[in-house]
């Protein structure tokens, strides 16, 4: 058999194989019941709810920091008679949009400043303390000192801001992560205890059978009195 006759069938087979369309495999369908990770905004809002004053305020604050928009801060003042007044102030955001990591660092720094007593309220911790001075000619000059967002708007990095305010960046991030894990453990523990309580409540304990009454003891009959023994006659004297 010639070499030409051997090569011809092989070439035809190769051409047919190359012309056959390759069918792409369809990706596996998504599992609708697969767990999904929580949105970063929801996690951050839950983490800083106490700092912002309410869940709604925390969600709005996180969104404003993320998008670079203005935000509202709620302050509480207590009068001498104990009356509490809540005031909402709209604050201009001096910094631009930032990532979720920047939002977390901003709020963790603000929380640390308030806990240390360095700033009186959340607004000043974020935008700084304004000081107005009256000049000799009657004009006024306003300066802003500190404030996480103001320092960020001035071009400072997060590490520089933390060092300037007296904190270490690694410690702040670690503390925020620990607080989130602790809160998650508490919530999971509450859910487990509630589930156990529900399971226990569903099981009705059978009623205890009433104990039968003990029969009354039969009184023993009185023993008859023994008859008295007759007296023995006296013995006569010997003669």
Describe the structure.
- The chain is built from 9 helices and 4 strands.
- It has a domain at 40-194.
- The N and C termini lie far apart (176 Å).
- The strands form 2 sheets. Strands 1-2 form a two-stranded antiparallel sheet.
- By secondary structure, the chain is of the alpha+beta class.
- Mean pLDDT is 75; it is low at 19-37.
- Strand 3 (129-134) and strand 4 form a beta hairpin.
- Residues 183-239 are annotated as: Disordered.
Order of helices and strands, N to C?
HHHHEEHHEEHHH
Mean pLDDT: 75
Beta-strand segment tally: 4
Residues in β-strands, percent: 5-15%
Radius of gyration: 45 Å
Structural class label: alpha+beta
Pick out the low-confidence regions.
19-37
| Envelope shape | rod-shaped
User: How far apart lie the N and C ends?
Assistant: 176 Å
- How many helices? 9
In order across it, which strands form the biggest sheet?
1-2
Helix content: 40-55%
Largest sheet: 2 strands, antiparallel
Sequence-ordered SSE layout with sheet pairings:
Elements: H1 3-19, H2 40-47, H3 49-52, H4 55-67, E1 71-78, E2 84-91, H5 100-116, H6 122-127, E3 129-134, E4 140-145, H7 148-153, H8 158-164, H9 169-202
Antiparallel strand pairs: 1-2, 3-4
Helix pairs in contact: 2-4, 5-9
Region (Disordered): 183-239
Keywords: Signal
Signal peptide: 1-24
């Amino acid at each position: 058999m010639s070499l030409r006759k051997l090569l011809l069938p092989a070439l035809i087979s190769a051409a047919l194989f190359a012309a056959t369309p390759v069918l792409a495999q369809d990706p596996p369908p998504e599992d609708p019941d697969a767990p999904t990770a929580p949105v970063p905004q929801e996690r951050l809002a839950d983490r800083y709810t106490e700092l912002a004053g309410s869940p709604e305020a925390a969600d709005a604050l996180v969104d404003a920091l993320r998008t670079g928009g203005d935000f509202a801060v709620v302050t509480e003042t207590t009068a001498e008679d104990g009356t509490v007044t809540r005031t909402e102030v709209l604050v201009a955001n001096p910094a631009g949009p930032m990532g979720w990591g920047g939002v977390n660092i901003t709020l963790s720094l603000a929380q640390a400043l308030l806990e240390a007593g360095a700033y009186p309220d959340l607004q000043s911790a974020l935008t700084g303390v304004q000081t107005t001075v009256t000049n000799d000619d009657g004009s006024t000059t306003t300066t802003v000192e500190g404030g996480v967002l103001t320092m960020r708007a001035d071009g400072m990095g997060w590490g520089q801001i933390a060092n300037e305010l007296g904190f270490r960046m690694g410690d702040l991030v670690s503390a925020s992560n620990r607080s989130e894990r602790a809160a998650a453990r508490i919530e999971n523990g509450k859910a487990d205890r509630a589930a156990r309580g529900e399971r226990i409540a569903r099981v009705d304990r059978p009623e205890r059978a009433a104990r039968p009454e003990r029969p009354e003891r039969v009184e023993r009959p009185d023993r008859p009195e023994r008859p008295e023994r007759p007296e023995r006659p006296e013995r006569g004297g010997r003669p």
